[in-house]
Amino acid sequence: MKMKEQHKACEVKKQSKLYKIGMFANMNRVTIKTLRYYDEQNLMKPVYVDKENGYRYYAAGQIADLHRILALREMGFSIEDIRKIINGEVRMCM
Fold this sequence. Notes:
By secondary structure, the chain is mainly α. The protein has one domain (about 15-85): Multidrug-efflux Transporter Regulator, Chain: A, Domain 2, CATH 1.10.1660. The chain has helices at about 20-30, 30-40, 65-75, 80-85; strands at about 20, 50, 55-60. A 3-stranded antiparallel sheet has the order 1-3-2. The longest helix has 12 residues, at about 65-75. It is globular.
């Protein structure tokens, strides 16, 4: 294999399944309002927003991101603190 060739296991995986906001909310036991709020606060944006109807779509890969946000909220972090953590501006010591 040449250096410029990419191994198949290293290829970027395409998002094969997108979920409407209601389904994603139900799957993760949060409200649609919560997901919209996290979008407004730039904590977690949908992977796709339909320009015609404004529907928000989320990918299965975003479940871990949402659960991280929810865990930090449960620990008492503010939205601003969570934003800083997600953006790498603050490191968490564990």
